[in-house]
């Protein structure tokens, strides 16, 4: 039975769904039947994800997500929440998947990532539709560190999720040069160039992407009708294996649904709040930049230049 040797391990709301979808187009990469298998999340939270709630053998279920894989060079899964599992998750991945596993991390400017995370959790109905961004920040900061790390409080992980420097060192210590680090900026501005670089790192041909139409996946949008949104979320979850096998059908139906029940977020975030968040993240961004420069990663986005 095949197990992954390529894992997109972070971070949440930084383009991992799009990157996973693009890489799954490559004939040398076999992707899991669901994007986020969440198997190693157990070692972050100490409890199994709801995906495994009916399973008596979680590892066997994990293997089944790759049961269709044959002789591809890479078997891939993408669970961006692994990143914050730090040393325990990183080391367990290596222990179970082996020394040859490769890790991809994609970072995003933390304020924009936080805003996207907030919108995403609203669209998932995990936050009240009328909750303001400022009130959300207050609720995040009101939680103690002990409460914040609990799985049931994941919707309040928004601020903490941008402190990348607190988590990166463990992944570098465990995987060393087997970690590929990139940025949302590059994925957004020139996805084909990024894919070409990743293919070079993986030592596979990049020409497959030349003729591909690469669309953005997993946008964070507001909804008009909550009941329709609940139904759409349920269908999306239950049919994920089908959508992964038939991306064209999903794309068409998704566009119809967006026109029917989605709309852009209207809340404007004031400059004072943005200034506060930029100040909050600045020392962590500076530390992240230093960590990356220490491993000779010199191609940094604008938000990491000081």
Structure description:
By secondary structure, this protein is of the alpha/beta class. The chain has a domain at 6-111 and 158-215 and 281-304: Rossmann fold. The chain is 48% helix and 9% strand. The strands form 2 sheets. A 5-stranded parallel beta sheet has the order 2-3-1-4-5, sandwiched between helices. A two-stranded antiparallel ribbon has the order 6-7. α4 (86-97) runs parallel beside α8 and α8 packs parallel to α14. The relative contact order is 0.15.
Summarize the structure.
With 306 residues, the protein is an alpha/beta fold.
Gross CATH architecture of the domain at 6-111 and 158-215 and 281-304: 3-Layer(aba) Sandwich
**What share of residues are in beta strands?**
5-15%
Q: Estimate the mean pLDDT confidence.
A: 91
What is the helix tally? 14
Query: Biggest sheet: strands, sense, closure?
Result: 5 strands, parallel
- Read across the widest sheet, the strand sequence of neighbours is 2-3-1-4-5
CATH T-level topology of the domain at 6-111 and 158-215 and 281-304 = Rossmann fold
What is the H-and-E element order?
EHEHHEHEHHHHEHHEHHHEH
In CATH, what is the class of the domain at 6-111 and 158-215 and 281-304? Alpha Beta
Shape: globular
């Amino acid at each position: 039975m095949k197990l992954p040797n390529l894992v997109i391990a972070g971070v949440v709301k930084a383009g991992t769904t799009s990157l996973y979808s693009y890489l799954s187009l490559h004939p040398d990469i076999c992707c899991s039947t669901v994007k986020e298998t969440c198997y190693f999340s157990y070692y972050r939270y100490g409890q199994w994800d709801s995906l495994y709630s009916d399973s008596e053998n979680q590892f066997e279920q994990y293997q089944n997500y790759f049961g269709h894989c044959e002789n591809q060079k890479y078997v891939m899964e993408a669970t961006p929440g692994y990143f914050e599992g730090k040393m325990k998750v990183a080391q367990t991945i290596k222990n179970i998947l082996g020394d040859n596993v490769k890790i991809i991390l994609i970072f995003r400017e933390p304020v924009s990532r936080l805003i996207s995370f907030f919108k995403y959790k609203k669209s998932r109905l995990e936050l009240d539709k009328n909750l303001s961004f400022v009130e959300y920040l207050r609720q995040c900061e009101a939680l103690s560190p002990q409460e914040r790390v609990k799985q049931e409080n994941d919707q309040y992980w928004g601020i903490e999720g941008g402190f990348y420097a607190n988590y990166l060192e463990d992944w570098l210590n465990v995987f060393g040069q087997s970690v590929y680090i990139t940025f949302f900026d590059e994925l957004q501005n020139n996805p084909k160039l990024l894919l070409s670089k990743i293919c070079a790192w993986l030592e596979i041909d990049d020409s497959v992407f030349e003729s591909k139409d690469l669309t953005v996946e997993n946008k964070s949008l507001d909804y008009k009708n909550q009941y329709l949104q609940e139904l759409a979320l349920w269908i999306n979850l239950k049919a994920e294996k089908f959508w992964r096998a038939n991306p064209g059908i999903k794309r068409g139906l998704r566009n119809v649904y967006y026109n029917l029940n989605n709309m852009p977020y209207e809340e404007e975030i004031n400059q004072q709040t943005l200034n506060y968040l930029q100040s909050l993240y600045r020392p962590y961004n500076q530390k992240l930049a230093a960590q990356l420069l220490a491993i000779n990663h010199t191609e940094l986005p604008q938000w990491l230049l000081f």
